[in-house]
């Protein structure tokens, strides 16, 4: 229902250059970074798993949960080494959780990986890139753990820690009879809308009573009549850990759009739940709960990111702020002899003595010095003692430098002074340097809070939690623990507490391995990336700098040593440019939505880039410091350009203002007066309303008084994306401005519309019935009705698409049925299901068209097998080769209902779910059913030419997929894809890729490992005509969107490791010679451009070895060698078939010119190329062809795309006009949403 609600939020990043941020530099063969100063480990994001990381960190910092999981040994859970054995019952999910928690506790790395854990969930690589709701994950993960722990001593782990009960009571005012219903919960869902905070929401839920009186009486079973009654709810049993899920996301049924509640919602650090409990005779301490985790959602209702604030209950982390840590006064004030700090010999010796081997790279020595005393070598000692490396050389009697001067160690026999004095002084100094800042140890009870954002862990103060009360970044889940839960003293600051011995040994061995790897990689890379923006390549307009030609031509990447000075950088740029004349000024610039803006100028040529705090990936603007293109450039944060949305009334040809609003973007300096909006829009005067909260809510619009029009945009709190509305001051009808707020009138809707779908003789087709939220939800003869609303009928909600939804059982109120006033209902024949029945939709096949679903009412205790029989009978189908799948959120076939003897209730099916009848039996456990296709690309494969005509023929019954192509387009080899269906292969997940190829290519009599069956339309003899010599003559691809997708390489790899999933299809491509591609190989389709024609030759396969890097130069040389052409005489480009465009790859000359001293070339795996297997590479000879890479087919394809897009837009606008929606002229194109996907965790059966 939430769709792509929880996508990682990239909405503020444009498609070109704005918001590129800092590039993530991945270093091959480099060990993971050690833990930072907090001594806590984060969790790496796999692409879209921030929601999972936040929940896992919360469970990890719940010591009782973590230790209860650790108490389960291998004798109960099994061993991960046995997980692939067919008869072994290995509970993989709890085992992987144990291992992850041990890594978070003990492994010295900045962030742990959840890849093994998500593999145990049964997630594919696509699933790990999707984002989901953390509240939903919390329930699904707990359910998976309960299933995994059945039959062990931890079977009640979740129930023991998180299970609570609520009691709902209805008290009759006449006879005082109490009707009671108890509900279980693992977390409590609380409202946010129109509620001030958590305690207010709990008061409404568990203190306030709902009174049934007047027109909304209650039928008392004892009195046997309608009476006045009061309904209330109370907390009956409180668990040790209480979880609150905040309902921040709602749906506006008037605007038909989702929105996020960003209003202020407070929650206490300690809460007393006594007023909300049924039994309140116990001491107050029994009801006290302390907050220990806050999961935060940052973003809007269509995108966002999760991170978590966590209280370190066991004090496992170092709760010390960086600003306190780097303050030299804090670290030095307790020294007995201040001269020891002034002596660099003593400081350096103390640092080296902390190293186990007394050996450290010189670069790291300077960093550790800065970390220990809070000030760098250059600032404190360079002026008196010279550079650090020179100082070490001058004191060779103490320090031993390696031959290349990259590492330094202490000499064993130092003549400085007696060994005892050295040790005594060094220990005293080390004790002082490693001590915590004053004040922190004086508060042992001070709560230690951390902000854990995927891999990053930062300490925060308790008051920082208040910042998450409201806004686009606000609290989404709250976790409380009982105040009486006390931790044992031996658990304090002891990460090894209660960790099993086998995990302790594993983590110790892993730490030793990490130390060895880091010792091998001690020559760390001190280079970082700078983006140089050249002033002559930019021009200034619309308040910001913009490239004259393109961003690629105007921005140069430069790799530079961050230990060098600003003067060195300036000199390097002089040498790189060669043509620069006059002064050169370097300024820090940043991309804002309006364009590139220049901030502070860099001064101090003697300072290093680290000292002037130049960050990796910084944008540096190179100019003369005054003007660009003859225009003086405003610089600094005060005049930062703001991109604002200005809405103002349209003007007709008679200069009269119309009611239609025009939404236009404008750029203003931050220090400009807000009254300048009138001048920019050519409007003489009016009333200005601003919406700085970036919310669509009407209450966020505020009027700017006339006396404030001279204030600046920054003073008014406006920022990028804020909206400004200009209203005619004389217009009092359309928009009213009173008390500084935007006021609108809304008519209350107090009725329901009922449509007659019973085909009664009554002439009435629909009727409006008065209702309130407490109106009972069933056909009532007391209301104004259609022939008394017909007997033996039920009311079914109608969605916005006209589909009838599931009937709601009788006697439900509108509130319980979650119906809004003004909703449409259908009066349908048949009775609503009872409380023990399920109303299900079902359809045949996976391609479900609207309106083709059938309906059925069954008992919730019916088994999957019996339900399947009933559905087959109702749909007129026969046979036993069918199975059921549940439709997921994407309206596609989801997970299969594998347990045929399980009841529908046990599988958590509910009324309104849709099941799909899919032909074919399910494969046994541990097997995959893989459809196999034959793929024959066009090309010079003469060995297979005899059969090519048959392969490329049109198969009218679906045996061949064939996509339409455009003549002369180079994508013909891929656009005209012929995939011929061979049949389905049932194969074990433990089989290798070469075994799969062998079973397909061998004669039928030789197939022993696998079971293969083919459709009658295609027989095996036609396939045997290929006479494939061996499996190495076959190339395997996955099928994605009816085309070859991912190339499956490494013959010996198991199918399980490819993460194929249950619905993956594979196509096989014949080869002329044997092929065994390794991980470093990339398969490309190369096409040579024909001289004098806008066309290409047939594609020829090229295997590119990327062992030397994914650089453009490496690919260009490989292509040149392959074509036997000089590298300087060719130009190559990647073809984008979906756009009918070519993307040129920079030549080696361009790279050398632009990156003379750049060691690290651009990676073609990244944007904008994203080069992968199967991509088409066009080759053009420079001296023969002068035009671009495009073909006639490309031109035709682009024209067809434009015509199709225009026609689709017109049809959508016509549909909106017919449906009475907002006029098309005022429609704003919405951001495309990703496909909706359901969340599931696969668990084995351990009953």
UniProtKB/TrEMBL annotation:
GO molecular function: cysteine-type deubiquitinase activity
The keyword Hydrolase belongs to this UniProt entry's keyword annotation: yes
Entries under InterPro entries matching the protein: Papain-like_cys_pep_sf (IPR038765), Peptidase_C19 (IPR050164), Peptidase_C19_UCH (IPR001394), UBL_USP40 (IPR057763), USP (IPR028889), USP_CS (IPR018200)
Compositional bias (Basic and acidic residues): 1210-1219
Signal peptide start and end residues: none
Family: Belongs to the peptidase C19 family.
Keyword Transferase: no
The USP domain, residue ranges: 41-483
Pfam family, one: UCH
Catalytic class of the enzyme: hydrolase
Biological process per Gene Ontology, one example term: proteolysis
Keywords noted in UniProt: Hydrolase, Protease, Thiol protease, Ubl conjugation pathway
Region (Disordered): 1190-1247
EC number: 3.4.19.12
Catalyzed reactions per annotation: Thiol-dependent hydrolysis of ester, thioester, amide, peptide and isopeptide bonds formed by the C-terminal Gly of ubiquitin (a 76-residue protein attached to proteins as an intracellular targeting signal)
PROSITE patterns: USP_1, USP_2, USP_3
Domain of life: Eukaryota
GO-annotated cellular components: cytosol; nucleus
Protein name: Ubiquitin carboxyl-terminal hydrolase 40
Name of the coding gene: USP40
């Amino acid at each position: 229902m939430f769709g792509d609600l929880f996508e990682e939020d990239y909405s503020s990043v444009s498609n070109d250059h704005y918001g590129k941020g800092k590039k993530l530099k991945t270093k091959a063969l480099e060990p993971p970074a050690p833990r930072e100063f907090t001594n806590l480990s984060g969790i790496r994001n796999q692409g879209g798993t921030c929601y999972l990381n936040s929940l896992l960190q919360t469970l990890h910092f719940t010591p009782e949960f973590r230790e209860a999981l650790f108490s389960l040994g291998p004798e109960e859970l099994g061993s991960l080494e046995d997980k692939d054995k067919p008869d072994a019952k290995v509970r993989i999910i709890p085992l992987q959780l144990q291992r992850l928690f041990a890594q978070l506790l003990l492994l010295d790395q900045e962030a742990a990986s959840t890849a093994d854990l998500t593999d145990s969930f049964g997630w594919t690589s696509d699933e790990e890139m999707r984002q989901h709701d953390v509240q939903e994950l919390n329930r699904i993960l707990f359910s998976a753990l309960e299933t995994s722990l059945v039959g062990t001593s931890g079977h009640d782990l979740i129930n023991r820690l998180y299970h609570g009960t609520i009691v709902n009571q209805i008290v009759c005012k006449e006879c005082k009879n109490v009707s009671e219903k108890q509900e279980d919960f693992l977390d409590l869902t609380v409202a946010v809308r129109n509620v001030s905070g958590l305690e207010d929401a709990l008061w409404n839920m568990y203190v306030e009573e709902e009174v049934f009186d007047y027109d909304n009486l209650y039928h008392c079973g004892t009195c046997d009549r309608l009476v006045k009654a009061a309904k209330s709810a109370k907390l009956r049993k409180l668990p040790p850990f209480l979880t609150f899920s905040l309902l921040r996301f709602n749906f506006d049924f008037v605007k038909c759009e989702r929105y996020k509640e960003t209003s202020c919602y407070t929650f206490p650090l300690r809460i007393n739940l006594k007023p909300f409990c049924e039994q309140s005779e116990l001491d107050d301490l029994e009801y006290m709960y302390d907050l220990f985790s806050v999961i935060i959602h940052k973003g809007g209702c269509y995108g966002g990111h999760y991170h978590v604030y966590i209280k370190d209950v066991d004090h496992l982390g170092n709760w010390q702020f960086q600003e306190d840590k780097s303050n030299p006064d804090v670290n030095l004030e307790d020294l007995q002899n201040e001269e020891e700090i002034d002596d660099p010999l003593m400081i350096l010796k103390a640092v080296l003595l902390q190293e186990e081997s007394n050996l450290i790279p010189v670069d790291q020595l300077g960093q550790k010095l800065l970390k220990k005393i809070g000030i760098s070598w250059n600032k404190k000692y360079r002026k008196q003692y010279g550079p650090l490396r020179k100082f070490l050389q001058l004191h060779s009697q103490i320090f031993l430098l390696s031959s290349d001067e990259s590492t330094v160690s202490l000499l064993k026999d130092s003549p400085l002074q007696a060994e005892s004095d050295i040790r005594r002084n060094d220990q005293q100094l080390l004790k002082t340097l490693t001590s915590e800042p004053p004040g922190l140890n004086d508060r042992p009870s001070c709560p230690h809070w951390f902000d854990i954002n995927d891999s990053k862990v930062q300490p925060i103060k308790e008051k920082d939690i208040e910042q998450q009360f409201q806004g686009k970044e606000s609290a989404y889940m709250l976790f409380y623990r009982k105040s009486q839960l006390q931790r044992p003293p031996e658990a304090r600051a002891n990460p090894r507490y209660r960790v099993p011995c086998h995990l302790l040994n594993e983590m110790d061995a892993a730490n030793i391995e990490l130390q060895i790897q880091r010792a091998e990689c001690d020559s760390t890379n001190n280079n970082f990336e700078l983006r140089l923006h050249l002033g002559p390549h930019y021009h200034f307009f619309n308040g910001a700098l913009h490239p004259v030609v393109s961003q690629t031509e105007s921005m140069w990447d430069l790799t530079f040593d961050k230990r060098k000075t600003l003067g060195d950088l300036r000199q390097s740029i002089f040498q790189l440019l060669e043509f620069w004349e006059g002064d050169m000024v370097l300024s820090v610039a940043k991309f804002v939505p309006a364009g590139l803006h220049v901030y502070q100028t860099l001064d101090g040529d003697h300072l290093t880039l680290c000292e002037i705090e130049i960050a990796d990936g910084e944008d540096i603007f190179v100019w003369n410091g005054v003007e660009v293109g003859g225009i003086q450039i405003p610089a600094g944060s005060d005049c930062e350009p703001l991109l604002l949305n200005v809405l103002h009334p349209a003007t007709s040809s008679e200069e009269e203002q119309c009611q239609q609003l025009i939404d236009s973007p404008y750029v203003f300096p931050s220090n400009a007066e807000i009254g300048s909006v009138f001048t920019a829009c050519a409007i003489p005067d009016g009333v200005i309303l601003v919406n700085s909260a970036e919310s669509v809510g009407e209450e966020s619009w505020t009027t700017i008084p006339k006396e404030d029009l001279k204030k600046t945009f920054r003073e008014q709190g406006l920022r990028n994306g804020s909206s400004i509305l200009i209203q005619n001051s004389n217009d009092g009808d359309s928009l009213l401005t009173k008390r500084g707020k935007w006021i609108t009138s809304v008519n209350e809707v107090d009725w329901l519309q009922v449509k007659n779908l019973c085909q009664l003789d009554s002439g009435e087709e629909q009727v409006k019935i008065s209702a309130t939220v407490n109106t009972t939800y069933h056909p009532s003869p007391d209301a104004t009705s259609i022939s008394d609303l017909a007997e033996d009928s039920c009311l079914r909600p109608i969605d916005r698409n006209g589909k009838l939804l599931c009937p709601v059982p009788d006697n439900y109120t509108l509130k319980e049925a979650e119906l809004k006033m003004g909703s449409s209902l259908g009066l349908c024949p048949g009775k609503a299901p009872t409380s023990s029945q399920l109303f299900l939709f079902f359809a045949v096949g996976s391609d479900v068209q609207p309106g083709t679903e059938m309906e059925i009412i069954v008992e919730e205790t019916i088994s999957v097998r019996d339900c399947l029989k009933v559905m087959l009978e109702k749909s007129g189908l026969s046979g036993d080769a069918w199975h059921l799948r549940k439709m997921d959120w994407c309206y596609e076939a989801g997970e299969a209902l594998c347990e045929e003897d399980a009841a529908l209730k046990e599988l958590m099916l509910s009324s309104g779910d849709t099941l799909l009848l899919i032909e074919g039996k399910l494969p046994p456990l541990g097997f995959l059913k893989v459809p196999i296709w034959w793929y024959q690309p066009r090309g010079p494969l003469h060995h297979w030419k005899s059969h090519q005509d048959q392969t490329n023929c049109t198969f009218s019954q679906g045996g061949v997929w064939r996509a339409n192509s455009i003549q002369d387009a180079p994508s013909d080899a891929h656009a005209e894809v012929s995939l011929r269906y061979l049949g389905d292969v049932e194969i074990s997940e433990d089989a290798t890729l070469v075994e799969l190829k062998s079973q397909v290519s061998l004669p039928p009599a030789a197939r022993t490992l696998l079971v293969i069956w083919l459709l009658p339309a295609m027989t095996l003899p036609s396939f045997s005509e290929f006479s494939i010599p061996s499996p190495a003559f076959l190339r395997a691809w996955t099928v994605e969107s009816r085309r070859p997708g991912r190339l499956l390489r490494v013959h010996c790899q198991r199918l399980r490791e490819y993460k194929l999933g249950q619905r993956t299809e594979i196509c096989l491509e014949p080869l002329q010679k044997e092929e065994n591609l390794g991980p470093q190989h990339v398969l490309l389709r190369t096409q040579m451009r024909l001289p004098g024609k806008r066309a290409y030759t047939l594609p020829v396969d090229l295997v590119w070895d990327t062992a030397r890097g994914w650089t453009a130069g490496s690919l260009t040389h490989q292509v040149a060698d392959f074509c036997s052409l000089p590298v300087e005489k060719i130009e190559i480009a990647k073809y984008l078939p979906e756009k009918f465009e070519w993307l040129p790859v920079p030549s080696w000359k361009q790279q050398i010119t632009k990156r003379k001293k750049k060691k690290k070339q651009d990676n073609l795996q990244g944007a904008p190329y994203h080069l992968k297997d199967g991509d088409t590479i066009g080759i053009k000879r420079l001296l023969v062809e002068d035009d671009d890479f495009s073909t006639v087919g490309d031109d035709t394809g682009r024209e067809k795309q434009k015509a199709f897009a225009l026609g689709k837009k017109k049809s959508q606008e016509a549909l909106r006009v017919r449906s009475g929606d907002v006029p098309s002229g005022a429609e704003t194109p919405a951001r495309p949403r990703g496909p909706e996907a359901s969340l599931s965790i696969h668990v084995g059966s351990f009953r």
